[in-house]
Amino acid sequence: MKVKKLDTDILIIGGGTAGCYAALTAAENSSASVLICEKAHIKRSGCLAAGVNALNAYIVEGKTPSFYADYAMNDAAGIARYDLLLTMSERLNKVTARLEKMGLVILKDENGRYAARGNRNLKINGENIKPLLASAVEGLENVKVLNRVNIIDYAMADGRVAGAYGIGIEDGAFYVIRAGAVLIATGGAAGIYKPNNPGFSRHKMWYPPFNTGAGYAMGIRAGAEMTTFEMRFIALRCKDTIAPTGTLAQGVGAKQINSLGEVYETRYGLTTSERVYGTVNENQEGRGPCYLKTEGITPEQDESLMKAYLNMAPSQTLKWIESGLAPSRQNVEIEGTEPYIVGGHTASGYWVDTNRATTLKGLYAAGDVAGGCPQKYVTGALAEGEIAALSMLGYIRDNEPADIPEEDIALHIAEAEKFTGGNNSLFTTEQLEEAMQTVMDSYAGGIKTNYRFTGAQLEIARQKIKQLVILSGRLHADDPQELMYIYELRERLTVALSVIAHLEARKETRWHSFAENLDHPEKSSEFGKKFVNSRLENGEIRIILRDITEGGEPYEHSDR
Amino acid sequence: MSIAIDRNKCVGCGKCRTVCPGSLIKLDDSGRAFIKYPRDCWGCTSCIKECPAYAIRFYLGADIGGAGSLVHTEKTDGILKWIIEKPDGSVSQIDIDPKESNKY
Ligand SMILES: Cc1cc2nc3c(=O)[nH]c(=O)nc-3n(C[C@H](O)[C@H](O)[C@H](O)COP(=O)(O)OP(=O)(O)OC[C@H]3O[C@@H](n4cnc5c(N)ncnc54)[C@H](O)[C@@H]3O)c2cc1C
Ligand code: SF4
Ligand code: SF4
């Protein structure tokens, strides 16, 4: 393989929401050189590709950052970091103003003030949010963007993260990047569980199928402490198109009803997980399918909904038009998705300190890959990107970059060349991916078991995933893109093993559906005060239970 | 959901290939675009909005209830037009002013 060596003060892995904003912050506050490595192209990569519907996290007039932090804490049933929630919330409005300056259209009232949607949201036209962020970054002198470079691992030196390795999926080169500090901003993980529609439309999922958990996996392998993987995210979505339901629920006040026409949402509670759980239960008890009640809304509301969906999830509008049944004429059927691991909605991800430093020296985390801080959404990811960038600037002032050992480089190149060398694999990457999804679906609380699991099932899942890890080591790739697919599969398998260990370790059911443990179906007061964290030590996942502190006490960051 | 590219309309500009968040679109030997991994399409419509030749359509897979309608966008005078062609030949169009916020 052709080797390309690069040097930068700050390396940002993933040019998505958090990554782009971190680059912007670093450029505006220093003359440090910044390099963004993005597996696709920053113009339309990651969660924001199709556009978003609203700004879900904003401090509306009359509310305070602690109001938002309290809300998120409550929705997570107490398993979240107040320090992270608060520092994020304090920046939400500032980053929003910045988005508007970049050109994002935000709805205003007659007095020129932002028009709020409920207590926490702003209405926008979010179709072009990613191109706006990307062009803000592309104009910066000190920021270089490498598109279509897929990062596969950290480069470690002197016990710290000293850079990263990547594979150019168009030029086929092996990249060795030495950096003063590294930000991981690769988003969460989709595709670990079998999706709603595993056939031709397998990628018609909510979370981007191209966010494959690279950041989590690299951290796990390098021995970073990770938190709360057991708090999976399952979205309540429009059936088939997997389009968001919040627009219907909040926009036109559509209630969740069962096939008898009864409003059931109030019976189960209104937290994110309870809305999913209620739907699963109604189906199980023979009152399915479930719907959002839209019949009877006005033609004007129909039209506004059609437009709103085109700006974020066009397939739903297509479905309405194709069937000739607008929402006013037919209630919208809903279902739960397969579980995702997404630290921007739940609390899964890197265990970070208030400055967004991970437990690995030289490595910072922001956005969906960072744990402890649920409900961050777009603006929270931007806020974390800003916090992390400022912390990194401090770090590079005080620390010299480390040299990456040649042996480590050789090892990583040899691994990549093994996959592209002689072909004696019986299996394809796609087959193993489907096998992994089937295992997780059947034995680790997927759609098939209504998200429920037992300890005995998790043990089977673990054995089967370990077997797939071995098989994945013998896969073959014909070109750089196929090579990326092998690395993606291996990332997902690594994350899957951690998810299994975490699901097993939380011996309670704190959140219905997200972690429905049939051996321990109730909440436990002991686990209500604990984070389930983990770290890979000598190839084994070690679980670490950490206390949830009260009254703003700082968190233990490391016991090493 | 996936996309279909009309190679007779494609002018080979490569913009769709650039923006695809899954790197699923490639150019063939004659420099025209094709989707190499149709099952892997997320349906984000980024490629469609880029195409200057209006050569790309997206559709819902039959497994999620698709009935063969094709969608593309055209941008004129700053208005984004979503055009939906149904199998019976009828056409619907929804115009969106990017300067207007969602109502919901
Ligand atoms: C469909 C959808 C709709 C949403 N709607 C809303 C909404 O209406 N309002 C709201 O507030 N929030 C919404 N959210 C949530 C919000 O968009 C996310 O929480 C936020 O954008 C996450 O930012 P991020 O930077 O962590 O991830 P992303 O923006 O996804 O960035 C991750 C980036 O890393 C890249 N990457 C991944 N792996 C690698 C690798 N190995 N090497 C190099 N690059 C890599 C990806 O290509 C991507 O560009 C939505 C999310 C989704 C998925
Ligand atoms: S719709 Fe999106 S994911 Fe599908 S081919 Fe086009 S750009 Fe790629
Ligand atoms: S954007 Fe359109 S014209 Fe350009 S390469 Fe793609 S299909 Fe062809």
What does this structure look like?
- The complex is a heterodimer of chains A (560) and B (104).
- Chain A is of the alpha+beta class.
- Helix content of chain A is 36%, strand content 19%.
- Chain A has helices spanning 17-29, 65-75, 82-89, 92-102, 129-138, 214-222, 246-251, 265-268, 272-284, 299-310, 314-323, 377-398, 406-420, 429-443, 455-472, 480-505; strands at residues 3-13, 34-38, 52-55, 105-106, 116-117, 121-126, 143-147, 149-157, 160-168, 174-184, 226-227, 236-238, 256-257, 290-292, 332-336, 349-350, 363-365, 452-453, 516-517, 530-537, 540-547.
- Chain A is globular.
- Chain B is mainly β and 104 residues long.
- Chain B has two helices and seven strands; from the N terminus they run βαββαββββ.
- In chain B, strand 6 and strand 7 (91-96) form a beta hairpin.
- The model of chain B has no long low-confidence stretch (mean pLDDT 95).
- At the A-B interface, strand 4, strand 6, helix 7, helix 10 and helix 11 of A face strand 6 and strand 7 of B.
* Separation, N- and C-terminal Cα atoms of chain B: 25 Å
According to CATH, the fold-level topology of chain B is: Alpha-Beta Plaits
* Side-by-side strand order of the widest sheet of chain B: 5-6-7
Task: Tell me the distance between the termini of chain A.
Answer: 38 Å
CATH class identity of chain B = Alpha Beta
User: What is the total number of structural domains of chain B?
Assistant: 1
Query: What structural category arises from helix and sheet content of chain A?
Result: alpha+beta
CATH architecture of chain B: 2-Layer Sandwich
How many domains, in number, for the residues of chain A? 2
Q: What shape does the CA trace of chain B take?
A: globular
Annotation field: number of helices of chain A:
16
* Chain-averaged pLDDT of chain B: 95
- Total strand count of chain A, please? 21
